[in-house]
Write a structure and sequence with these properties.
The protein is an alpha/beta fold. It contains four helices and 17 strands.
């Protein structure tokens, strides 16, 4: 279950209420910084923009691929741990505006996580350390640490991907000695 806070609206659909929840100037400012970062080929500059201009929490050596789209209105609700890779054209949302309500939720991506290209991550999810998300997945629920998930709807393909790789390295190292 996603961890989102729900805000009911009356009258027109929730998107018509957006500027009651977010300043239009914040949206414009964030949009400009996000567009710059989407095309920026220098990872350290891209991470600086995310941290200092958008208020995201981004760990050391995390890499955002070309064209990644982070939430325009609530980027400060996104956390990405150290040494993770966010694949090409991935979308990370911390909000969703529906007909009768809008929802906000933190997105927490752990350390050493691999997110495949063209993935959509919905508000209120946590992706555990060492997880791998296959390209094109829609992450609508939490992902366990070390899990390999994919698809729409999202399903677990295998567990303990990171542990399996570490076990293999340890066994290889033991065999050599």
């Amino acid at each position: 279950m996603r961890k989102v806070t729900r805000y009911p609206v009356e009258g027109h659909n929730a998107l018509w209420h957006i500027y009651k929840t977010v300043s239009p100037w914040k949206g414009v400012r964030n949009f400009i910084w996000i567009q710059l970062s989407r095309y920026c080929p220098i990872l350290s500059v891209k991470n600086w923009i995310y941290r200092h201009m958008l208020g995201m929490k981004v760990g050391k050596h995390t890499a955002f691929g070309l064209m990644v789209m982070v939430d325009v209105f609530f980027p400060e609700k996104i956390t990405v741990g150290e040494n993770s890779v966010i694949g090409y054209n991935t979308t990370i949302l911390a909000h969703e505006y529906l007909i009768k309500e809008y929802r906000l939720g933190e997105v927490i991506i752990g350390e050493n996580v691999l997110i495949g290209a063209n993935t959509t991550i919905l508000p209120g999810v946590t992706i555990g350390d060492g997880a791998v998300v296959a390209a094109g997945a829609v992450v609508h629920k939490d992902v366990a640490p070390g899990a390999f998930v994919g698809g729409n709807p999202l399903r677990e393909i295998s567990r303990n991907v990171a542990t399996t790789e570490m076990d293999l390295l340890v066994k290889t190292d033991e065999h050599v000695h």
